[in-house]
Amino acid sequence: MSLTAVLAQIDKNLPAATERLLELLRIPSVSTDPAYAEHCQSAADWLVADLERLGATVSKRETPGHPMVLGHLAGEGPHLLFYGHYDVQPVDPIDLWDTDPFDPALQDSPEGKVIRGRGASDDKGQLMTFVEACRAWKEVHGTLPCRITFFFEGEEESGSPSLIPFMQQNAAELSADIALICDTGLFESRVPAIITMLRGLAGLEVEITGPQRDLHSGMYGGLVRNPLHVMAGIIAGLHDENGRVTLEGFYDDVPELPDEIRAQWQALSFDHAKFLGDIGLTEQGGEVERTPLEKLWSRPTCEVNGLWGGYTGDGSKTVLPSKAHAKFTFRLVGQQDPDKIIAALKSYVHSAVPSDYTVSFKGEKGAPAAQMSITHPAFEKARKALSDEWPDAAAYVGCGGSIPIAGFFKDILNMDAMLIGFGKDDDQIHSPNEKYDLESFHKGTRSWARVLAELSKP
Amino acid sequence: MSLTAVLAQIDKNLPAATERLLELLRIPSVSTDPAYAEHCQSAADWLVADLERLGATVSKRETPGHPMVLGHLAGEGPHLLFYGHYDVQPVDPIDLWDTDPFDPALQDSPEGKVIRGRGASDDKGQLMTFVEACRAWKEVHGTLPCRITFFFEGEEESGSPSLIPFMQQNAAELSADIALICDTGLFESRVPAIITMLRGLAGLEVEITGPQRDLHSGMYGGLVRNPLHVMAGIIAGLHDENGRVTLEGFYDDVPELPDEIRAQWQALSFDHAKFLGDIGLTEQGGEVERTPLEKLWSRPTCEVNGLWGGYTGDGSKTVLPSKAHAKFTFRLVGQQDPDKIIAALKSYVHSAVPSDYTVSFKGEKGAPAAQMSITHPAFEKARKALSDEWPDAAAYVGCGGSIPIAGFFKDILNMDAMLIGFGKDDDQIHSPNEKYDLESFHKGTRSWARVLAELSKP
Question: CATH top-level class for B3-198+369-455?
């Protein structure tokens, strides 16, 4: 079957494919906020209908949360499972968006055309690159070079609570030769990349309570400990002067980088000054003795994602507040155990608050880091396919983010997973003004068409 | 002139005096909400009429905000200015009130009769103790033992924007031998108290910006410094392990407590365990080497009143935020200069942020501490008068809060001010279900009758 014709069909389809993506982006499928539950259903319905147009056998599967979409499309070659997620992040702070996040549009930018809107890059745009590649194969040849299972989730941005039970209950239906995941980016916005390691995640929300009620800072200040000061001390104490996390046993299960991987990463000549410069910074943070790529890909972190307490409105209120709150997450590597890290944080918080304070925890969650089996032959085939499409040869890279599903495919379904994506560093995913380059969408679709062709080869 | 007859008249008048106070409390003179402006006028009119009934020459004086009430009542002895405020706090949250805040009533409570309603204690009830004392003197003797100027404000709960200009423009008319202010409380709800020192205030809001936009904590975490961590470090660094504020020069203008005052405070046998226990705490905070009353009255503090940044909604968002915010206030003592303290905080913040961060400040404000001249003979006279009325001898106490008007009398009119009040710790001022004990109202009125008698003595 001719790949050339398929690529030409993708080029021809681009305007219509873009319209389809805009339609999906208009559905505000924010998974973390119950007010948007109905829209998550709509996004799932939209995908069911679109896959049916491809000729797939599709069903929407209800879960205790948002539904899964599961579709099967016949094909000749190996059996691939493609995973993506149709849910999106909340849009706050909404006043920093230049356009309505759910009224997406194709816009001109100094770097070319972009698709602007919440979910354009994470993950609706990426997900649709694969769907559009399948559509072009189908339109040109009437069939696909591989057998495909589509697996779309609607809870990725809210911790995927239904994912593991669903995978366990539908293990047979989900089984395939390898899983493909499109939720990552190009290295340095340019080099096609296959992820070989992902950091894990551990999260916990902490509330500390000092005085039983908010106090007048004049009447009580000086004798009563301020919970905001105590929380600040807790946060400040989590890193030492070398940027290392101070929690007991935190580095116990963190391996050193193998020399071979270190050499590969060195060859990437990562421009960290540009990486920082793009976000207005010049100074590196983090562990002083590590290289920038190690810090981003193979070293664990501890971050406060949210912090609040006291009076945060306009003007001044001289309150000595009762409570302080912080949301913590850790990025994990190697064999770090999320439960052990969370236990260490709890123990540290308890030891750091005054004895008359109370502490409560919630939002506990965790997923270990993942390491891909690049000895699987699909990896080298995909690397060739990507290198054929893009000006730069494809690279094996790490990823600082956490995509727990990669580990789940291995642990629950005993399948290897290959993460390939076309996002760029300035896509502003999880932030206002999210976008996906039209080039990412177009060449991403062409990339998958090529990957399907390569993987179908013996 | 017989004081005994005046006190008997006050006892006889109590039911009528209570009715008058209830009438004033029925006027919803909330100063901060423009919807109540007319009611502020009504409260001022009510006071004008009541002072006229006493035989005073009274006028309502318009300001850009709510009016002042200024009245003069002839008398034999020294010239006293009495200050109070007729405006009240808003009543939100209204659903936490057990009764209508503006349908006040005399109620039975386990601790005796209370006058329940907004403004009962702050400050209409307190203000009327003085007016009723004058009324009894007038009724019994046809004249007063002192010459009185009444000065009632209607903007105290909304920042007193008209106060300084009014004092400057009417300096001659407001001049008297000493100012009396009735807006404070009994020490430990029991001991009559004269305030001899008030802490000052300095405030500043700080915003620090690291990366230009919110980042994905997986993609950037480890290489990029988190502004929430930097802010936590700034806050944690503001106190040393002994609870002292670390800002350069912070204690330069903080005097040691004179031995005489220290001995007086020691004699008060302040029950700090009960004070902390009432708010659910057992441990003292603050400077380790200071006594509880020093910490509350004569030592400066640094408090974060509000702190925020990142994602603070429900659930989790793995953001590495662009900005962190904190609102700081300092309680000042002695000769501490608010401008100098604010400059020291700014300089510290600049030194504590990474060189590629930006910092911005707003909401700068300050007022120095006030120290009363207790060598003024009126103080010992008032102390004797209060000690005669109450079971406990009156005490000279400090006040950790900031009551700027005391300083204004000194700075603008070159008058000393004496702060005496009869509020109790559980009056719930600024909160739902505000009350004033009938005992506070009754013995407060008797206290002022005695103070007038003492001050009239040569």
Answer: alpha beta
Class level of CATH domain B200-254+300-367:
alpha beta
Identity of the residue in B210, B232, B287 whose CB atom sits nearest the CB atom of A235: B232
Cα gap B180→A336, rounded to integer Å: 68
Distance from CA of A410 to the nearest CA of B (A): 21
Tell me the angle at which helices B3-25 and B124-141 cross, rounded to the nearest 10 degrees.
Answer: 140
List the 107-146 stretch of A: residues with Cβ below 8 A of B: none
What residue spans in chain A does CATH classification 3.30.70.360 cover?
Answer: 200-257+297-367
Write down the H helix ranges in B119-199: 124-141, 163-169, 171-174
**Per-residue pLDDT tens listing for chain B (458 residues):** 799 999 999 999 999 999 999 999 999 999 989 999 999 999 999 999 999 999 999 999 999 999 999 999 999 899 999 999 999 999 988 888 999 999 999 999 998 999 999 999 999 999 999 999 999 999 999 999 999 999 999 999 888 999 999 999 999 999 999 999 999 999 999 999 999 999 999 999 999 999 999 999 999 999 999 999 999 999 999 999 999 999 999 999 999 999 989 999 999 999 999 999 999 999 999 999 999 999 999 999 999 999 999 999 998 889 999 999 999 999 999 999 999 999 999 999 999 999 999 999 999 999 999 999 888 999 999 999 999 999 999 999 999 998 889 889 999 999 999 999 999 989 999 888 999 999 999 999 999 999 999 999 99
Which residues does B172 contact at the CB level (< 8 Å), separation at least 6? none
Q: Do B308 and A309 touch (CB under 8 A)?
A: yes
Q: Is the distance from CB of A438 to CB of B258 less than 8 angstroms? A: no
**Torsion angle of alpha carbons B236, B241, B243, B244, nearest 10°?**
-90
Chain A residue with the nearest C-alpha to that of B200: A218
Considering only CA atoms, give the Rg of chain B: 24
Question: Considering CB atoms only, which of A212, A216, A400 is closest to B221?
Answer: A400
Q: How many CA atoms lie within 13 A of A390 on its CB side?
A: 28
**What backbone phi and psi angles, to 5 degrees, belong to B97?**
-80, 140
Say which residues have a Cβ less than 8 Å from residue A177's Cβ, sequence separation at least 6: A78, A79, A80, A378, A415
Rounded CA gap, B337 and B316, in Å? 43
CATH for the A200-257+297-367 domain, from 3.40.50.2300, 3.30.70.360, 1.20.1330.10, 3.40.190.10: 3.30.70.360
What percent of chain A is helix, strand and coil (3-state, nearest 5)? 35, 25, 40
Q: Specify the DSSP element, H or E, that contains B364.
A: strand B358-367
Q: What's the CA gap between B271 and B268, in Å, rounded?
A: 9
Query: What tens digit of pLDDT does each residue of B208-266 get?
Result: 999 999 999 999 999 999 999 999 999 999 999 999 999 999 999 999 999 989 999 99
E strands along A287-442, which residues? 301-310, 319-320, 323-332, 358-367, 370-371, 395-399, 417-420, 435-437
Residues B130-163: b if buried by 16+ CB within 10 A, e if exposed:
bbbbbbbbbebbeebbbbbbbbbbbbbbbebebb
Residues A194/A366, Cβ–Cβ less than 8 Å:
no
ipTM associated with this complex: 0.89
**Which value, to the nearest 10 degrees, does the dihedral of the CA atoms of residues B359, B363, B368, B372 take?**
-150
